[in-house]
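WARN no homologs supplied; continuing
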Amino acid sequence: VEPSSREPIHVSIGRKRFQVKDIGAGGIGIYRRGEDKGLEVGGEYSFKMTLPLINEVISGIIRIIDISDRVYNCTFIGLSKEEMEKIHLFVLERQKEELREKRKA
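OK structure emitted
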């Protein structure tokens, strides 16, 4: 799912902070910043982020699987069952929120 524009998700990787484009059980898409060359395909990086709606912190390892003009596509590596459950819960809550928004439109 895509995070709400009202409550974007930011992920910290080392000293850098990126905005999350989308998130699911398998991984995340992260917007690149300009000409940022800091992350490489195949690279594994520690990350930390707070998921809005459920106000839970997730941390672990991601692997960059692809880089496009604007997005790093990443997969989660070895997240605990608890961390995966947090992601599933966030996705479900965000999907509910999207449905409510569509009904209002």
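The longest strand covers residues 56-67.
OK
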